[in-house]
Specification:
Blueprint (H helix, E strand, L loop, with lengths): L41 H13 L4 H13 L4 E4 L3 H8 L7 H23 L13 H24 L12 H4 L6 H18 L12 H14 L5 H12 L23 E5 L26 E4 L1 H10 L2 H7 E4 L16 E4 L10 E5 H15 L4 H14 L10 H16 L5 H7 L3 H6 L24 H6 L5
Antiparallel strand pairs: 1-3, 2-6, 4-5
Length: 472
């Protein structure tokens, strides 16, 4: 059975970020699924799944997710010299924005690869696949990968086309957008299927396991237009009791020496550009004297939030100040004599990055408990304090449901900065416009983002609209 080739509704747009020192798109794709390979046995099925995982090592997952999650929000400025990043930062992006087109294409390319697994693997006649339920494990992992991609799409764009199989006609290639509720229904359906079939443990944290799926289900139910806090609590509990534990040192999470640790639930596995798989990392590690400004510059507001909380440990682990006076670039927000760089990715292209870790889920459970009843803040408090105590902070002062909402929001911001979560937190709590329109620079001047409801979602890329008029 040959792997089908098709023109999906989204073609990966290879637009290189200006100013980047490395061009990921020049690399040979990891475990590329090629059309001349016959998938007729268990090895072919594993090849298909490897292609689905391997396609995640594209610009979106190793770089743009941070722009979308932190630069769009109040954690980072665009930095660098990339006009597409800067437009996203300033809420001036249009349908021709290169990053937005690239991200749409990358996510749909990932979905295409997951769909190939789900279409082909059930028909492979090889008894090896049915030993130890490996066939079902493969299908479960692919279902979770597809759900994860749609989870990003629906939060960034809202209604999007649901492509669940290889298009066999022009009509199927030009599908109309599905309502947000239908997209979430499909995400949950895929994740519920995956939960039954994926493994409990795996060789490393880059593989989808039950912990990953439970964590995704918790996050999805919290992000729906009408959150289901009972389900959030249920799935968060399954993660918390699933064998994970907070790593002892917050700074140690990001030292590069503790990959796949006890707190990690799902983790991108990097081995550098010279490694055996050639998987690199565009993370904005600390490089001074390289002649270019790093993308994703920490904001004055975030640094002030760390300082106001007396949060020394997380600030130092997340942000480092260096003298950049000899650099040739200028900056509108910071003095070059003491310029902030993100410190969570310190080893440049040899750093793993967390997709989900336990602290995220503990705080999500606290949020669920707080929302389930007016007195839920008292149940949420020990969970918030658990996160704070790790970094030598005292107990939260929140003593009401309203105060606890803001306390959890702040805790998630300081804990998860530069891990791609902040913008999505602001969106799902309905606080995005309010928070962003209040942003000021280091001199107290309003940044005038003028965020309206229409600016909370990305525009559909123009190239996609040209290909698929039904996506309007």
């Amino acid at each position: 059975m040959k792997l089908k080739i098709y023109l999906s509704t989204a073609v990966l747009i290879a637009i290189t970020a200006a100013g980047c020192k490395k061009d990921f798109l020049d690399k040979q794709p990891f475990n590329q699924v090629t059309p001349d390979v016959a998938f007729t046995n268990a090895a072919g099925a594993e090849k298909l799944l490897s292609g689905a995982y391997g396609s995640m090592y594209n610009d979106y997952h190793i770089w743009d997710y941070m722009v979308n999650g932190d630069v769009t929000a109040d954690n980072a400025y665009a930095g660098g010299d990339n006009p597409a990043n800067i437009q996203i930062d300033l809420f001036t992006a249009t349908s021709t924005n290169g990053n937005i087109g690239r991200d749409w294409g990358a996510l749909y390319s990932d979905i295409k690869n997951a769909n190939e697994v789900l279409e082909n693997v059930p028909n492979i006649q090889d008894p090896v696949l049915d030993q130890g339920s490996r066939r079902n494990q493969i299908l479960g992992e692919a279902s979770a990968i597809r759900a994860y991609m749609y989870f990003h799409l629906v939060r960034l764009w809202g209604p999007v086309p649901l492509i669940l199989k290889t298009p066999a006609s022009l009509e199927e290639m030009q599908k109309a957008k599905s309502p947000v509720s239908e997209v979430y229904d499909q995400i949950i359906k895929d994740l519920e299927y995956a939960l039954v079939h994926v493994r409990t443990t795996a060789p490393h944290k880059g593989i989808v396991t039950k912990g990953v799926v439970n964590a995704l289900l918790a996050k999805v139910h919290a992000s729906k237009p009408t959150p289901d806090w009972t389900r959030v609590n249920q799935y968060a509990d399954a993660v918390i009791t699933g064998g994970y534990s907070l790593f002892g040192s917050f700074d140690g999470l990001f030292s590069g020496n503790n990959k796949n640790n006890s707190e990690s639930i799902w983790e991108m596995q990097y081995d550098g550009w010279g490694g055996p798989t050639g998987r690199g990392n565009w993370m904005p590690g600390v490089i001074v004297g390289s002649g270019w400004k790093r993308f994703c510059t920490p904001t004055n507001d975030l640094v002030a939030a760390f300082d106001a909380e007396g949060d020394v440990q997380r600030k130092n682990a997340s942000v480092v100040f260096r003298n950049a006076s000899d650099e040739g670039w200028s900056d509108n927000y910071w003095s070059k004599s003491s310029y902030p760089y993100i410190n969570k990715y310190r080893n440049d292209d040899r750093t793993n990055s967390y997709i989900i870790r336990l602290a995220d889920i503990i705080l999500l459970k606290a949020e669920a408990l707080n929302e389930l009843s007016a007195s839920g803040w008292s149940q949420a408090k020990p969970l918030v304090d658990q996160i704070r105590n790790r970094v030598a902070l005292g107990s939260t002062s929140a003593t009401s449901q309203t105060a606890m909402r803001l306390a959890i929001e702040k805790e998630r911001r300081l804990e998860l900065a530069f891990e791609g979560h902040r913008w999505f937190d602001l969106l799902r709590t309905g606080r995005a416009a309010e928070v962003m329109n209040a942003q000021k620079d280091g001199r107290g001047n309003n940044l005038n983002y003028n965020v309206s409801p229409a600016k909370l979602l990305f525009p559909i890329p123009q190239a996609e609209l040209d290909r698929n008029p039904n996506a309007r």
